[in-house]
């Protein structure tokens, strides 16, 4: 895992970078006015589109028969639900297996982190996001041939070769082991406000990110392609508790229970090109010189009413999902989790992104392989290491050839 050295004075670094970008840019106010006009039209288009969160059938991906119009929709919207990625009974068995794994190892009795579940008005000792990484169900899902097929399909939307270089291999997976969510019926879900992950202040300050967004910062925002992989695999974030050591083409999760709109589910702003708006908004005169519209190192990049009011009306809920469906969104896509409570349904998922093979991802995956063997938490997450002594944890014998390669083993 590599990181970039944090500036000694963040406010000074932000002010200096903003001056440099404005000088490099030219008419930043005029360009933002153009981006804003485009954004408003696109927001109106999202509001008028009942299918703004595209739904793709896994069987069509497997057979290579996804209609071109649907492919175009995924590219435009930067998100997708893949129905039937796994059989419902498979996902439900994974859910049962995870519950048994937690019970058998007395997670409730050993958990020492913050509790965020509220049930029947009483504070519970249970989280909703569980720092568990190495259960057999998680390993089985990550290395499953259907997951490999879906990730390959998603990676195909990206330009993996540009600027005279090959940036990643869209046909090879690496592991980015993440956690699980278990939200019992009746739990209060306080949600998450709109944000993007994988970099906050870095998107302006780091030279590699300036290369990623070179067209925007050079005054040619219309040439910006959010699907161009150029330089993204060279970004190393500042050290923090929310940093990501891998390049993820898509963030994603696998549904282990039925979830419906209104249950406190994921919402996205289905406009991957909206990053041009976010970047240019911070360079406008009404934003303080040492401020990037509220971006703070160590936190996700916030998108809020004060500076981004044009974007938020486009927030779109995922469609209803069933166990075995997978949900995906482009790594730059603005997303949130709505407040919501449902008395009847669980809200359980395994977080599994798409992280194709490249030197950056392979190096992190190899570190994760060592953590897997020890039962330790992966490097991007707090070293809670609950699973070190757990029974029923996945072992080398549970890895197939894909799983071994994903973890650099």
Automatic annotation (TrEMBL):
<dbReference type="InterPro" id="IPR027443">
    <property type="entry name" value="IPNS-like_sf"/>
</dbReference>
<protein>
    <submittedName>
        <fullName>DUF1479 domain-containing protein</fullName>
    </submittedName>
</protein>
<dbReference type="InterPro" id="IPR010856">
    <property type="entry name" value="Gig2-like"/>
</dbReference>
<dbReference type="Pfam" id="PF07350">
    <property type="entry name" value="Gig2-like"/>
</dbReference>
